[in-house]
Amino acid sequence: MPVATCRLLYIPTTIRLSSSLPFSSSSSSSSSSSSSFPRNSRFFPSPSLSFRSTRSPILGRVLSSSTSASHAAATAAMGDAPDAGMDAVQRRLMFEDECILVNEDDKVVGHDSKYNCHLWENIEKGNALHRAFSVFLFNSKYELLLQQRSATKVTFPLVWTNTCCSHPLYRDTELVDEASLGVRNAAQRKLLDELGIPAEDVPVDQFMPLGRMLYKAPSDGKWGEHELDYLLFIVRDVSMKPNPDEVAEVKYVNREELRELLRKADAGEGGLKLSPWFRLVVDNFLFKWWDHVEKGTLKDVADMEIHRL
């Protein structure tokens, strides 16, 4: 999301696979044209402003030059605000990342900062529905990789969730609707950002979009989620170097271990919490889809229907 350079603050620390989680343990990017976007949307740049894409030399991200001035102004304005105490990495992402605003039929209607999209007051006004994705990565033993979100995350810190949850951004490579390519590009990017999984370990064409989920969930009164969430499944053995700014712990689980995790979360044991989007997927889809993961028949359940939950 002159263009400000986006720099990843990465600490090359390998986070171990957790053995302390309180449940039992076992063994092509393309471009899309903006010509079809509605010019009368208040969320779009004025037609008088040029829209061009520029790649950051650090991350190769595509940033919109038409919105960089507003990013800088918003970030400067935060200096005296209560949110100035926010973790520096998370604060930067909140203002530099531009989420893709959509309607309930998943049609693009504009874009706005990650900060604005996650303010509960904006969500309540109906101005913050945006695209998201949730990756479910299984290894060759068909165990699911989970992560515990870091303590510095603005929304839902320290909750356990699926492999990776984030947003495609308002940039050429992540706006491509055909075959959900934009969302799959974003998933590959964030698996590297959050978990240090190299792109070659998770080829874009190996992500299987199974469906979409529309949901809303408060976090702490100020923050929340209102997302149209793409559910992406992939079976790969990968290497990892999780980023401690994003991830506290990681762990592979089989089905029985996940059921034990659900039981402990329901009982409130050890303060264990699950993200609301992960729980929705678990309760509605995950175990029946897990069968197809093991059989290699995920295509049989891929319908891309929007499930309004």
Automatic annotation (TrEMBL):
<dbReference type="InterPro" id="IPR011876">
    <property type="entry name" value="IsopentenylPP_isomerase_typ1"/>
</dbReference>
<dbReference type="GO" id="GO:0009240">
    <property type="term" value="P:isopentenyl diphosphate biosynthetic process"/>
</dbReference>
<comment type="pathway">
    <text>Isoprenoid biosynthesis; dimethylallyl diphosphate biosynthesis; dimethylallyl diphosphate from isopentenyl diphosphate: step 1/1.</text>
</comment>
<dbReference type="Pfam" id="PF00293">
    <property type="entry name" value="NUDIX"/>
</dbReference>
<feature type="domain" description="Nudix hydrolase">
    <location>
        <begin position="128"/>
        <end position="280"/>
    </location>
</feature>
<dbReference type="InterPro" id="IPR015797">
    <property type="entry name" value="NUDIX_hydrolase-like_dom_sf"/>
</dbReference>
<dbReference type="GO" id="GO:0004452">
    <property type="term" value="F:isopentenyl-diphosphate delta-isomerase activity"/>
</dbReference>
<keyword id="KW-0414">Isoprene biosynthesis</keyword>
<comment type="pathway">
    <text>Porphyrin-containing compound metabolism; chlorophyll biosynthesis.</text>
</comment>
<dbReference type="InterPro" id="IPR000086">
    <property type="entry name" value="NUDIX_hydrolase_dom"/>
</dbReference>
<feature type="region of interest" description="Disordered">
    <location>
        <begin position="20"/>
        <end position="40"/>
    </location>
</feature>
<keyword id="KW-0149">Chlorophyll biosynthesis</keyword>
<protein>
    <recommendedName>
        <fullName>isopentenyl-diphosphate Delta-isomerase</fullName>
        <ecNumber>5.3.3.2</ecNumber>
    </recommendedName>
</protein>
<dbReference type="GO" id="GO:0005829">
    <property type="term" value="C:cytosol"/>
</dbReference>
<comment type="function">
    <text>Catalyzes the 1,3-allylic rearrangement of the homoallylic substrate isopentenyl (IPP) to its highly electrophilic allylic isomer, dimethylallyl diphosphate (DMAPP).</text>
</comment>
<dbReference type="GO" id="GO:0015995">
    <property type="term" value="P:chlorophyll biosynthetic process"/>
</dbReference>
<keyword id="KW-0413">Isomerase</keyword>
<comment type="similarity">
    <text>Belongs to the IPP isomerase type 1 family.</text>
</comment>
